[in-house]
Amino acid sequence: MSQPSTTTSAGPEQGAELAAARAAYEQLRTRGLSLDLTRGKPSPEQLDLSDALLTILQPGDVRAADGTDCRNYGGLQGLAELRAVFAGLLDVPADQLFACGNASLTVMHDVVAHAMLAVLPGAKQRWADEDEVRFLCPVPGYDRHFTICDRFGITMVPVPLTGEGPDMDVVEELVAADPRIKGMWCVPKYSNPSGESYSDETVRRLAAMPTAAPDFRLFWDNAYAVHHLTDDRTPLLPVLAACEEAGHPDRAFVFASTSKITAAGAGVAFLGSSPANMAWYARLAAAQTIGPDKVNQLRHARFFTDAAAVETHMERHRELLEPRFAAVYEVLERELGPLGIATWTRPLGGYFVSLEVPEGCASEVVRLAKEAGIALTPAGAAFPGGNDPRDSQIRLAPSFPSVDEVRSAMEGVAVCVRLAAAERAAA
Ligand code: PMP
């Protein structure tokens, strides 16, 4: 993403633009809008796509392929037939993949908690016994990853993204020098919020880089593995295989879920890693639960009999998402393109558009939008501590509102960007 231009000296043209922008904003406020572009939630129409899950199991249909009665306790690893469907999609061997509860965030939180309280394979001691634990956080990133770090007192070290994943020169230097760096958040495909995917070279370097910490882990959150928005399916190098090849078989924990495939909140989460890591996890998870919700897993296994069924289902999602993203681009191009005061991403998948406004303007845009009835993700949310050093990045989440609502919201956002930029130029 190129940097938007900023104007710094006020003059008659800036005065005229400021007056025009103020007038447009006053008109926007009179519309009494109530629109929300904050969180990447599926729309009701997307959720409808999986409504068969509500009735797919009939009384008497309660057994998995191996005869397991899914209503009863047990089966910590989750149903084999569901793991078989997602193993290929996530590039994790089925016997190294667990099907867990309803949310991958829970699993991420728990893996960090377990690493705090139990010695990871290859570690000298528990993370709780370290003086300080640090995680690399590619920015802009996913705010809930940062919340997990906050909760465990983990110091977050921001690293820039390049469009092909994190800046690997920076990452390699940091992890080689600092044994306190124990982990790194990665959203390797259609990243939240930048939309970028990690190149093969990025994945290889992450897998191969020497780390000062013997127990360094990649927290590989592949939340958008199958969430394409174009025919370009952006292949991602399998991280577990890359790590093994590079001589670091235990380096990555892979997370994913069906939250944005079936029901967000009532889907199935997955965790995959090396045999040693999964044995470690299984021992600790066994103290938390006698087993996951296998009835929900059976529903999902009936709904998706193979990986191709998942891909076909994702095409239906794409049909609903594409016009919403198109509405975002159409309005931004029309309203802001000619002004040259903002840039934005055009992701090939995922749930977000990242909007870059002139430096120092993002908080003001979000404030103005709120006053006009348009809720945006708080400025800075994609940065550790909520601190965007340039105050220029805004995450747009167009999935939930209708296409008309997205268009109205974006027209409003464009007015707010214009006013914030004009105010700044005139200041
Ligand atoms: N990871 C990323 C990168 C996400 O964007 C989201 C949803 N916003 C999640 C995880 C949440 O996944 P889950 O519902 O499985 O907890």
Automatic annotation (TrEMBL):
One example GO MF annotation: transaminase activity
Native source organism of the sequence: Kitasatospora arboriphila
Keywords: Aminotransferase, Transferase
Keyword ATP-binding on entry: no
Taxonomy of the source species: Bacteria, Bacillati, Actinomycetota, Actinomycetes, Kitasatosporales
Entry annotated with the keyword Transcription regulation: no
Cross-referenced PANTHER family: AMINOTRANSFERASE, PUTATIVE-RELATED, ASPARTATE AMINOTRANSFERASE
Domain of life the protein comes from: Bacteria
Full protein name: Aminotransferase class I/II-fold pyridoxal phosphate-dependent enzyme
